[in-house]
């Protein structure tokens, strides 16, 4: 099914080699072997990224009529202007550059059971915007053109497992959104396929258990955004029956109970849907694409090698030249969106009746397709609010920034999509809060993890950032 | 809770007056009384609609820079141009006028049990585009401004039942799409609230059972589009346990089994979601708003009193002056979209293992928000295909047009939204087909009614036309 490639090993071989040193985890590869393999792949996939002037981009240029930054083929993506009108009380209208990419790509993870334990086929992949080059990515990240084989060529490894009529069982298949403040209506198809085949494992790939992925998710810049996002979609049934007493402590019990949908939720699921419908109907979000050159009046300036905002906030648009060793095309140039500072994604959680509840907010971003989506309790780039009056600062921002260490359940830096963003990093935090903490307004609701994940089969409910947080919790299995 | 209005009667009074003549149906009002009441309301709500020139519109005009037809307040809706690019083999790119209305309105039905039997509070309401003036509409049809009470004023009757914190129980609350070929990304909030209050019944309102509504749904131009759409969303649990042996014949049994989710579906629900995701990811649908005046190159002409296409197909845009007796504003002018001919919506069904399955297609229309939605087996304006080569005519169109009468389970003309469309009517057909009929390509799937209705809590799965068909089947209760 897959052509034999130099350096591939069969599952049986992978399993044998890993088996000898795996004891804690029923994994085909030990964590020590994983790190050796990952370091080797990082060195093998060396590449250079250099900032260049827009004039030095190859195939990319500014449209003379609009000032939009476009590719001459009309493919890939473009940078355009978006004008937004809302009924918010603070900054209700604005214009901003936005990435327009109407195409839906495919992000797939191939899974397989070894001795009954679920493993995910993950890739060590470099992206030009990554802060550290190579990160763990899904089995497949493919554009629609690759998927439909419009342009012929070698194609993407393992893509055949994700096509209709493949021999695998489709366990999840849905469209999920990406960053609403940087993308206009962008979505990717997330697909999880289980196979029983003896899969040849290419040298850039390895099988990891959910428990192993959970550990890797606690490391900075290790698991890329696409991987986190697809991992969040793995159906609970796949991770085996959640034995809610299997964890080491009562916090883990509360997480597992919450994932399994046991215990009583504060709000019924129908009430949650009604609340979100009310927010979406009440929220004005009028989006109008405008020529990028019209954003001058909003403070956006186009220079020789950067598009930026006069206040030094939000993000820049830059151009880079990439020289890599492990891509179909080994050298290319492209624009990237470079945020001015790291974002903060903090999920406040508490145990209610022994079941973990997360305080989610319904958030409306400039480029969202469906008005509002659920996201973390705090979701912002704090620097953008440095000069904002206290009453318009994001609720809980200061609470989170000053929270005592004993409340922090995890605290990790993850990268956002390195194919579009340059050094975009967010701090992901989970904080367990005191009982008396209440939601500040009607934009917030306490939900169980089961309630959150049961919305994932349908599009545009959870932001990509909230899915990252969910991924960490979903991979928390009793057998870690 | 509701101000006492001249002509209102309490539930107790309604119930008493209806009770005496109701025997077949446990309804508070007999069908005979309903027709008397409806005829009275039709006469009371008399109004005139006259075509006028665009220049005679009050508050509306063509924007000099774009040629878009807009209201001077920036509110209501506008007529703009839309350019669409797809990867279809036939007519892959085109430009067309489209209604842009980013606001989400509220369509609500208040329900209440009388002696345990569910009743819906329905309104006799006139809309300027209706072919016959007054039709049965939901309890509430409100714009967001009405809902948020932005403009003050008398307000919409019964609207308080649909606000957060009302005393009712919210039984359904979700966003649903409208016609994708005429509207850009339009959706309305559909909400069903159950009350135990003694509700004063205004003279334009009456309580009807689902069985009564089912009968009315078989009449031409009786139940308006908004009512059909909200009725389709009434949760099955509300209509009482479906006794699948209660019907008179095996066809009714098969419908009730299908609604109840009993029996085996041809495809599992996960497979259906995966199939629809595949269609959405594969289908190109690039939408770009353009000035209406740019559509000249697509054959659209703007005259003194009509915008039309040089081929005489699709639809016109016209202007009307309305003089009515039963609206807050008693006289006004507005544009309307006037289809050139009636549409055809045919749902092919068959019994598979004793459970009714419907053959739905995943259809992609110019203005859809989510690329593709499920709709009837045949969904078109046949006249638009008069000169189309046979291989590009919609599958089953000729089959339906020549089907023998014995296969027809129902055949009725319904109006589409009379507030936006002028004399827009569609023929809704349900045909039971022979066993050997198979889906022509991967755009079609056999689904049970339970599978269809379980998608309704989430947005943009079923077109408004398919929801009309579902409404007729959902209201088919054992107690008719």
Description:
Two copies of one chain form a homodimer. Chain A has 480 residues and is α+β, with helices and mostly antiparallel strands. Chain A has a domain at 250-285 and 341-476: EvaA sugar 2,3-dehydratase subunit (Nucleoside Triphosphate Pyrophosphohydrolase, Alpha-Beta Complex), CATH 3.90.79.40. Chain A contains ten helices and 25 strands. In chain A, strands 6, 7, 8, 9, 10, 12 and 13 form a seven-stranded mixed β-sheet that branches. In chain A, strand 2 and strand 3 form a beta hairpin. In chain A, helix 5 (225-232) packs across helix 10 (464-474). The longest helix of chain A is centred in the N-terminal third of the chain and has 14 residues, at 31-44. The two termini of chain A are 32 Å apart. The interface between A and B is large, with 38 and 38 residues. Chains A, B: Pfam families: Hexose_dehydrat. Chains A, B: Residues 32-234, 271-472 form the dTDP-4-dehydro-6-deoxy-alpha-D-glucopyranose 2,3-dehydratase domain. Chains A, B: It comes from Salinispora arenicola.
